Amino acid sequence: MRVPSSIGLKRNSKGKPVKELQKFLGKFGYLDKTTRVAELEVEANFDENIETALKKYQEFHNLPITGELDEATVKQMKVPRCGFPDLNQGTAKSNQGTAKFTTQGNRWDKNNLTYRFVNFTSDLTEGEVRSGIATAFGLWSEVTPLTFTEVTSGNADILISFVTGDHGDGDPFDGAGNVLAHAYYPPQNGGEIAGDAHFDDDETWSMNLPPSGFDLISVAAHEFGHSLGLAHSTVSGSLMFPSYSGPQRALHEDDIAGIQSIYGHKFPNWQELDNNSASVDIVADGNNLYQLHNNGGIWKYTGTPLTGWQELDNNTATKKIVAVGGNLYQFHNNGRIWKYTGTPFTGWLELDNNPASVDIVAGGNDLYQLHNNGRIWKYTGTPFTGWVELDNNTATKNIVAAGGNLYQIHNNGHIWKYTGTPLTGWQELDNNPASLEIEADSNDLYQLHSNGRIWKYTGTPLTGWQELDNNPATKNIVAAGGNLYQIHSNGRIWKYTGTPLTGWQELDNNPATKNIVAAGGNLYQIHNNGRIWKYTLPL
């Protein structure tokens, strides 16, 4: 099949170039079967049906919708792609929310699937192909209850083959370039080849990065999305977008939402509380949960998922909120600090307005602020004037408070605890330059190093630190209610169960997870798209 290349085709154009366009649009689902009968004509006419189909193609691929074969459209059509149709003429079900994934309607009736290789490509060793295919399946099993097991003989749910040209399924490959592979939906729509994946062996397949051909893992993971029941997505950054733009060995949020809409979560013990894309942060205090929007809106959860949120304020200057001890504070980008007194919008008491203030933290009933010159202040109860200075070290980069205790960490990794005397009453607890972050819960203190190592303070300054984990993927730690959690750069969430290094329980593994917060016995996560979830099992 030739890729259309005649820039300028439009309504009432005729001839062979129109026929090529017609075939292309028909192959990928933009013309229904009745219209495609016109392909038999010697000379095709660029009529209303073709114009409508071309507009659908342009819309699907996020192109200007001109209805003409313009330069941008031809460029997109030339990009190598999956041979699976983009539109299935009414058989697919599109998600109506913020995601753009599409499910076909069929799914496997079991979670433990098998696959078998019919043959292998000569571009790679059998071991490389097996490794690549296992990795591709692993992207989907990471976020669902699905498992994939290779069998070497007998029946298998998914057959994998490398073929060329006409290979017996009624959908011949076109040689090197354009169509790379295709796969078939789960039973019942696939018939005897349900779930099977075919790769064009006229292509050059690669496992190295950067690839010396087409990346097998990326293409295979895309095809297996079809094998599991996903159609193509209109999200250009998703794995299920029709075109191949280079290696993509990770699922997009849209891919995850799609596959989990069919098979559920790998870790099902999370309840969605909200899905507002404006949400940028969450804080928790006991059983209270709050979210901050990118326009400064502050909302409190009242108990009903998705709809049960009460707005407390909407000041665009708000850059941070803090909740602890039954108190809620907001911090503005000009240094102003406010405390919520109980009445939405109007019930905020201003506590300070110093533009040098860069952060606030709270522990129990105590509130502290940090200035850009390292000065630390504690609020004593009188707005504006009731602040006592506790330290003034320019090396201070962060402060944390919990259980009546206050700590600071310096740019060089030194960690100090406040002992009660302003300015001079600070005890040094550690001085490791690898220390990146500190976290406190009641009387417990933890530090995270730049290499992912997590340490707990055991009571002896400088030497009294016990290592709890050493995973370089760790990007943040959270402590609350006697529990310690860590989140990895790939969104995986772990809880410490009590045994150093090995005693960590995985609670979730969604790459969309941006942050976690904990309070009392509650744990929450917020995704990059603003969705908020609560862990439902006892912690």
Short synopsis of the structure:
The protein has 539 residues and is mainly beta. Helix content is 14%, strand content 38%.
Detailed description of the structure:
- The model is unreliable at about 90-100 (pLDDT under 50).
- Among the domains are: about 15-80, no CATH class; about 95-265, Collagenase (Catalytic Domain) (3-Layer(aba) Sandwich), CATH 3.40.390.10.
- The radius of gyration is 29 Å and the shape is elongated.
- It is built from 7 helices and 38 strands.
- It is mostly beta strands.
- The strands form 10 sheets. Strands 1-7-8-6-4-5 form a 6-stranded mixed β-sheet, with helices on one face. Strands 11-38-37-36 form a 4-stranded antiparallel β-sheet, with no helix packed on it. Strands 12-13-14-15 form a 4-stranded antiparallel β-sheet, with no helix packed on it.
